[in-house]
Amino acid sequence: MAEISRTHFGEAGRSRSRSMSRQQLGALIGGGVLAIYGITRRSPLGVALAASGGTIALLGTARNPSQAEASSSTSTSLLINCTPAEAYRFWRGFENFPQFMNRLETVTKLDDRRSRWVAYGPMGRPIRWDAEITEERENVSIAWRSLPNSDLLVNGRVDFKQAPADRGTLITVQMEFSPAPGTNGTFAKFLNKGANFALRQDMRRLEALMESGEIPTTEGQPHGPRDVVTGIMRMADPTRPIAPGSNLRNVFAAKRRIA
User: Fold this and answer.
1) Distance from the Cα of residue 86 to its chain's centroid
2) Which of 18, 28, 73, 111, by CA, is between 20 and 30 Å from 54?
3) pLDDT beyond 70 at 208
């Protein structure tokens, strides 16, 4: 297993921590001023202003996740009934990834080594990054990383190994990702919540896609839910499996659990 460099993640974390500290101070001061003003009003509106100011000040004192806490590493392996060459060819076409990776919206090929990725972020906000292949051995392995000016810092690697007795190919995926400096703090929750589970689910969909040519689904669409209700549920928690027949009551219950 090739070692994945973490140097640039550490530098980004220090920059982001300084930026978030200034934001916390601003929220603390602004919220305090608003709370004091509301108290002096001695009216229903004043009470509302005081409560709002207190909430803002409380958020200002809340501890923001450091870059190390926001970063996430995950890996998984799966035996798939195909040859290493078949697995390599499929994986080499990154534009195939949205077919089995639920969090991905699109992957666009820019040239033979670079691609542009768009994923579903917290509350439906798109996360965008460009990536380049950094290492490649035909039918054996592929490694890639994000480029500067991306919303997400990414290192990824996949290895293809022939299983004994021609039983298929063992595919091992390793990924490390972290929010880029200056991005919204809600990235931390998105990255850390259920990363291992999400990757395992994605790999099971890859297995079905490569072995049968389609992904079994109870939601009526092979690439994940697109209707309003399930869309809201996915925004509430992108990693939460959505059960058949889910309704708005499930949506609100999901939001309460997250809160």
Assistant:
1) 27
2) 18
3) yes
Residue 81 CA to its chain's centroid (Å):
28
Is the separation of the CB atoms in 67 and 14 below 8 Å? yes
Cα distances (angstroms) measured from residue 228 to each of 30, 235, 253, 257: 37, 11, 16, 20
Tokens of residue 21, six digits: 């500290």
Which position has the token pair 């004192």? Answer: 61
CA distances from 166 to 78, 79, 80, 138 (A): 15, 11, 11, 19
Assess whether pLDDT exceeds 80 at residue 44: no
Over range 248-253, report the average pLDDT: 44
Output phi, psi for 150, to 5 deg: -100, 155
Q: Residue 23, Cα to own-chain centre: how many angstroms?
A: 24
What phi and psi values does residue 44 have, to the nearest 5 degrees? -55, -40
Question: Cβ contacts of residue 195 below 8 Å, gap of 6+?
Answer: 72, 74, 239
Q: How far is CA 194 from CA 28, 120, 191, 199, in A?
A: 32, 15, 8, 9
Question: Which spans in 43-186 are helix H?
Answer: 44-61, 67-70, 84-92
Mean pLDDT across the stretch 9-13?
A: 37
- The DSSP output letter for 100 is T
Query: Which residues, 6 or more positions from 204, have their beta carbon under 8 angstroms from its beta carbon?
Result: 78
Q: What is the CA radius of gyration of the chain?
A: 22
